[in-house]
C-alpha cells in the first residue's frame, strides 16, 4: 500500500487502510458514509408534522366553515326596533 491508501485510526493512531471498516488494532469503527444530518432534519420535520397535523387540519376546516357562515351575514343600515 502507498501512503495515500492509509490513514491514522482516530482512536489509537495506528495506520490503517482508508477503506477499512474496522481498525485491526483497537476495533474502532469509523463513521460510515451517509447523511445523518439530513436524516435527523427529516425526522424532526416529520415528527413535528405528525404531531401538529391533528391540531392544524381541524383548525383549517373550522376556520373555513365559520368564514363561510360569516360571509352570509350582512350588516343592516337600519337600527333594531
The profile of the biggest β sheet is: 2 strands, antiparallel
What distance lies between the first and last C-alpha atoms, to the nearest angstrom?
Answer: 100 Å
Helical residue percent?
A: 40-55%
Helix count?
A: 1
**What is the helix/strand order?**
EEH
Unreliable residue runs: none
Topology:
Blueprint: E1 6-8, E2 15-17, H1 36-71
Antiparallel strand pairs: 1-2
Describe the overall structure.
The chain is mostly helical and 81 residues long. It folds into 2 domains: 1-33, no CATH class; 34-73. The chain is built from 1 helix and 2 strands. The protein has one helix at 36-71; strands at residues 6-8, 15-17. Strands 1-2 form a two-stranded antiparallel ribbon. A hairpin with a 6-residue loop joins strand 1 (6-8) and strand 2. The chain is rod-shaped. It starts with 5 loop residues before the first strand and ends in a 10-residue tail after the last helix. The model has no long low-confidence stretch (mean pLDDT 80).
Characteristic terms for this protein:
81 residues, mainly alpha
Summary, kept brief:
By secondary structure, the chain is mainly alpha-helical. It is built from one helix and two strands; from the N terminus they run ββα. The N and C termini lie far apart (100 Å).
Amino acid at each position: 500500500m502507498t501512503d495515500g491508501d492509509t490513514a491514522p485510526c482516530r482512536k489509537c493512531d495506528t495506520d490503517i487502510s482508508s477503506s477499512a471498516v474496522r481498525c485491526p488494532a483497537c476495533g474502532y469503527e469509523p463513521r460510515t458514509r451517509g447523511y445523518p444530518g439530513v436524516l435527523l432534519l427529516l425526522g424532526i420535520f416529520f415528527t413535528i408534522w405528525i404531531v401538529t397535523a391533528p391540531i392544524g387540519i381541524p383548525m383549517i376546516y373550522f376556520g373555513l366553515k365559520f368564514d363561510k357562515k360569516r360571509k352570509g351575514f350582512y350588516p343592516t343600515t337600519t337600527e333594531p326596533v
